Amino acid sequence: MTTLERVHLVGIGGAGMSGIARILLDRGMAVSGSDAKDSSTLRTLRAQGAQVAIGQAAGNLDQLEGGPTAVVVSTAIKPDNPELVEARARGLAVLHRSEALAALMADHRVACVIGTHGKTSTTSMLTVALQHCRLDPSFAIGGDLNESGANAHHGVGGIFVAEADESDGSFLAFSPSVAVVTNVEADHLDHHGTVEAYNAVFESFLDRITDDGVLVACADDPGSAALALLAENRGLRVRRYGRAATDVTLTAYEPVDGGGVARILLDGAEVEVRVAVPGEHMALNALGALIAGLELEAPLEGLLEGIAGFGGVRRRFEFKGRAGGVRVYDDYAHHPTEVAAQLRAARPAAHGGKLVVIFQPHLYSRTRLFAAEFGAALGLADEVVVLDVYGAREQPEPGVTSHLIVDAIPLPAERVRFESSFERVPALVADLAQEGDLVLTMGAGDVTMLGPELIAELDRRVRV
Predict the structure, then answer these.
(1) Which pTM was predicted?
(2) Engineering a disulfide at 177: which of 65, 143, 156, 213 sits with its beta carbon 3.0 to 4.6 angstroms away?
(3) For the chain, which domains are there?
(4) Is residue 37 annotated as part of the catalytic site, yes or no?
(5) Is residue 75 flagged as an active site residue?
(6) 282, 174 in Cβ contact below 8 A?
(7) What element of type H or E holds 272?
(8) Considering 163, 280, 383, 457, which one is annotated as catalytic?
(9) Residue 176 CA: distances (Å) to CA of 171, 184, 216
(10) Is 122 a known active-site residue?
């Protein structure tokens, strides 16, 4: 791994890049990086020994003595980025984030989780379950585990668990022996262009699974089921899970105490799987993690105990606090299927109170393509507040606004509101929410900031 002896990461504070930095540091490599603004993630990396600059400039490549042997970038880094330009001028090795992660996987037995939804939760469940079995896997996940607060770790158990990103096709850099596909549903068309191209990258991923490997597929999702059939036709071993599966069959699911209990048939035996996070979709994720763990030769009892103790992932129905008898949660859901699944899971958790959602659409292209589907999903709530579109990497599109979603929500007009001002949202929702209600901030942008502000506003009203 001489190329990664001294590494500079452009955009080191991002979820994927910071994980790579953590593993490199754990392995004793010299790490530097840069990002647009400071953050708790950067402060943690500095404490681990990374040299991190705020702002991006060619001179940032000189933070390490001797300079970097490799520069790592993500798809988000533009060709004219000054650090990338300088790296190429110096003739340095420039690696995509996925290539760097693939290099870190060398000499490990690799398990990857792919899919449009549920990747982070499934990868996290598998990681925690393996940790419970004392196998100490290395891992790289797109979210922070509640147990450790980390998104990556260098383990000594010889297993590497990774969330594999299909958004730009970069997961084709990996070669797992165990792959879990949770679902395949159109998304990221801003990059792939068409549904056919998006599906094709999953089909190409099948060729990356080792010859003696296995695909673990959710039989209840049409896209995943189709991928599993294709894998079998290519001679790959497949194990299926779900209500429609014969390998591992979900026979019943019951919400229990903020989580749920799944009953399954596993190799002809009845098994109870307890999950501490709510929703049947999370139970399905747990089954994918369970089978992957078994394929990695972990003991069934230990895996079940680990899944039962899984405390969730940051921003996946994460409890933020309570004030005035109102509970506030935060969730990363930003695709209609994710929104609908999480609202169905949140309904029992509301215990008869109103379900109030603050939703922030993510990307103009996704809003344009799925406005009607978002509207239908948000109709599962009792009160909905929709914010402006969070553009992220995209520029605004003429005629594409949050009103496309607002107009598609099948609730009475008085129960659906558009609010363009962040500052007004806490007071607005505090007016709507009553004791016993559940409020959920939802989206992949900065809507997550509103939870603590709403709690503070509710608390202020209690004290007045």
Answers:
(1) 0.76
(2) 213
(3) 2-96 (3.40.50.720), 105-308 (3.40.1190.10), 318-463 (3.90.190.20)
(4) no
(5) no
(6) no
(7) strand 269-275
(8) 163
(9) 10, 18, 12
(10) no
